[in-house]
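#onboarding

Welcome to the new folks! Below is a worked example of what a typical request in this channel looks like: someone posts a single protein sequence, and someone else replies with the predicted structure as tokens. Don't worry about understanding the tokens yet, we'll cover that in week two.

Example request:
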Amino acid sequence: MSLRYKRNRIHIKEEEQQCIKDFPVLIGGCGIGSYIAECLLRMGFENLIIVDGDIVELTNLNRQNYVAGDIGMNKAIALRNRLKAINPTAKITAYAEFLNRDNLYSLDLNCKVAINALDFSSDIPFLFDEYMADKKISVVHPYNLGWAGFLTVITPESRNLRSVDKEHHAFEMNVGKFIVDRLQEKNIATKWLEDFLSEYGQIAMDSPPPQLSLGLYLLAGMVCQIVFNIATGKTIKVFPESYYLSMRE
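Example response:
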């Protein structure tokens, strides 16, 4: 095992470290995707494709993987710079543009697993999943719940998110209700999340969901483990099954 990943040993076998090194991962959306990308890179995923047309704003700094000097810069470019500063030899492909119906099919998005961290301001997240399903690629959907992280995996054979709601408008609220239902089925306390959804519901049409850095840190670790499991052929749960990690009861 190379010196860079020497402290991964025992946790990650030598053959697994080699397996993930060139395993291509696509990250659509560099908000939630910002810490996920770094977590993947530090574990040893050295072939990352990142896509986002958004710019870094002051309001991003409470949770996303950017610094004050990045404000005004494209997120994909700023994130690529950070990732290259961590590992200059890593292959980091950055597209400084929003995914849409046209470039989804024209960009080189070849990967073996995709992370859908795109905003539901349009139906592009649905189209992203459908595009990947056509290519037989699994898609990880992470959700920052503030004090918790939640994710689910869409495969070409599984149900897709349109089974939750066919429309993107206020989709976060519908996902929130879906999450509550899934947690209650497992007898997991949801009052804090229900209270949040009730309050957020009053501003949902005019405001993106409030998020904390803690939820994003939890998510980064969760997503990294699931991508690792996919890359190394381990069993994972797929939608409508899910993964949940919380600091609240």
